[in-house]
């Protein structure tokens, strides 16, 4: 940085075009033909110059932003004329960025003309009147991300220069099939250090996102450590490793960051059998698999071998000698790869996305993993010998599956309503536990450590003394950890709410005041405590199972389930239940004294099988009642809200055109609603057979019995527990 005369500085400040950042003396913005500015600070001790100490100058000088010899600033020195083109000037020149901000008198938001060579990213580039209030950024996809604060300055450049939409647009314009070579297609490069595109995942849409797949959103990390300048020193650009070590005790150096593996990432993404390696190595493993797939596809389908060089533009080249590596004589622009198909272009673009952010594992590692996995999977469709993904994983366990519908459902609205935020956002549960209220929250990218842990140094969990269920029942399981789980895993409806909705209406009278009530997913707590929680519809005059007494060592949720993976500790089950070695074996558990509840004559199937047969019988009975008693056929879809639809063609299944909210079933009677509610209750807890199998069988049996009072239903051989 070069000193500025006091007269010039006062003129700049008087004009109001620049704001001095942290006492830093800015230089005037030259025209694109200005003489290059020296990069080395010079103190000129003359009566006309006031030399000032520049805060953070030495820190800044150690950064890449100040490296005047770097290719990022010198690439255009030998151009004729030597100037930085419009499409590059914004981020490779202080002059270009000030032009983009409109501080040169031109319109803001666009670079109007080429910029002079010779500048770096200096104080005034980031500290000025325009950046002071900047809080939003428009990404290459056209998506505007607002409410950012200081990191908006970083994201203006560290966003890349392309998006998945650019790839799709090029493919559409080429107008060719997935595996058809087109001379209209060429490699599209996201550019270097697109950290913001990785961090904001599907919000920014920096990667190519395959149709029909959902993707991770913004990587939140933890409160207070989520913005660029929270993790990086804004002047040296180095990662604040000391801050990382507050929670990641094993981190001492920047290299250690690559070995971080959190409890929310316990699946084997790359399928190499190692779930202890850092997320960076998981990404590297998938990168290797994708590169293998890219080369195999180019060789087998396109019949023109391809190689990649991360440091040589345009990165992908023809493998002239077919040895699989990028040799020096092949890495040249006139040998760039020129046989692109849509399928190959999508995969190559995502491969480059993963390569050009070296900190991707920390910025948004799971988003990158999904891009890599989906690219391999897509290429596999055309390969004679597909890349083996049988042991690889795309997504995490439910609590950390940020791409799942349970977290992405509200992206369009931008807010998760209070009725859902407690269990479907990272911040909702802690707020409820601390203040007893739920408010609307921004959509989350899965749970955070702080969702269940009240300390991120000791990792103690929130202590929950008792849980209030939807029925109004207040239950203390005796285990604070189980109570914590049941705060969400309790369902959202109950016998009480069903009775309240029905009121005193006759059992077989259709009413437009009735609607389907959904207990919601994974109401394991309500199943486990049975009649104490009254989560299912319990028919008057009947008695029901209460809390399922398993074994004294397996009373709490985390006794049987891993708290993070959520998987069942099958190895524990096998100690008592002979033959249990896998999760599938759990379905076969049957105690010797178990009767033939479903009446099918099979006394060797597991309790899960008994429940499934009776559940199937209830569904047939529901359809018979709707068809024969009401006159409006009904069908059920387990994955489409609101689940029960009018079967317009009477074929017994929900066809695609029938699975829409406008076709939701509307001719409810109290009798039908009770049975449908219990059918859903038994369906939405897939572990019901283990949580409280007899309770599930009781509500299924009683629902069948009640329907049989209105339509002929065979219950021959069935036994109620």
UniProtKB/TrEMBL annotation:
Keywords: Signal. Residues 1-22 form the signal peptide. It comes from the Bacteria. Coiled coil: none annotated. The keyword Protein transport does not apply. This is C-type polyheme cytochrome OmcC.
